[in-house]
Amino acid sequence: MVTNLDVNDPGDMLLKARAFSYARPATIAEALEMFQTAGEDASYIAGGQSLVPTLALRLQAPQALIDIAHIPELRGIAQDGGWLRIGALTRHCETLSDPLIAQHAPLFHDAAPYVAHPAIRNKGTLGGSIALADPASEFPAMALAMGAELEIVGHNGSRRVAADDYFIDLFRTAIEPGELLTAIHVPIVRLTHRWAFDELVRRRGDYAIVGSGILADVRDNRIEGIRIVFFGVGNTPVRAKTAEQGLIGRQLDQSAIAAAQAALGNDLAPPDDEHTPAMMRIHLARVLLGRLLSRIAEAA
Amino acid sequence: MSEQITINLTVNGEDVSQTAPPRETLVDFLRTRLQLTGTHMGCEMGVCGACLVLLDGRVVHSCLMFAAQASGSEVETIEGLSERGIIADIQEAFHQRNALQCGFCTPGMLMTAYALLSQPGVPSRDDIRDALSGNYCRCTGYEAIVDAIENVARARAAVANGRQVEEIEG
User: pTM to 2 decimals?
Assistant: First the structure.
């Protein structure tokens, strides 16, 4: 989908982005203002690890790039009552190393080593990943698994959207054009919580064939509450609600796990693609679910 | 449409101020404007790792950012690391172990090795393989590269232990 090649422009004959203007706002207010001035042909850029290649391949060609990577309000990780507020500019490598994230939002910590490669993790941001909402990405799915809320700012002020209402369709979220994802709020895990993350992937750092994160509230050996989320199986991260409901009140024994695996047929409807038929992906999702629930059972 | 902006940054310890179009990637900026051609341009989409540089001390892909984004930052390329002598032992180990053939991936490999070996502890072969997961080599089959990095890790640890013994024995 190459757009309007100009043979007189040497940059146009290479694998390069179309020309754009570049601005670096210092505040959120300034960023919103710049976007409004530029119109809908603008794009925010933070770490740029997904955006830059799409610009180089000209899958997107914004006329204005607004670099939000230097806005202090978008940084910082802090506990706020029962929530952990993680600034949108938190880099993947910080997600891996930050002790507050490891303690209070552990699925982000556990998933981080599986996100691309070390050099990408040094630049890519948590907010950027969740704003893009690639359905095969780890972090958007873990935000859903932990029941996070996404803080979004626009000209009408700031609002918090529950992850359950945030993912709308392929690369479509509750963020409206011109709005900014400013922070991810994660409910702090409690002593009764158990969690597990894993993914099946052909080669380390690639997108997973199927991946999953689970957060369970286990009391007296019984599941009080559970959120099971899969990624790489559809247009958005998907909660396996039938499997979840079947586990409530039960002990995590072999028969409960088998029932949850069987229930995935109701919860997941992955497409066929050239590498992985839908039935194979559902099979692999069941394998993964069995492993993760067994891990949770052992930890409980 | 060729708007130019001024980009100020530090490259290998020297202040650089140049005008460039905003869409110019950092790797193009380094190679064509500063003639720092040790940074290689392979896939241009953050997969092969040939273009790795240090940005404010962290290894990043110079093909996955525009030079404008680096304005105000410190960049160090393979030339900088090499001239500082800080990776001389890694370069020597690559040479000794034949850890390069065509050499196209080597600057990126050295960047990754430098970052890995700057962390505390002695990495295992699995750690080394994981660190190299974003660096493609189409010649060596990686085994010699892992060997070379492992040799340096052990040699550095031995030197560090020797120093501790000297300090204790005084």
Answer: 0.94
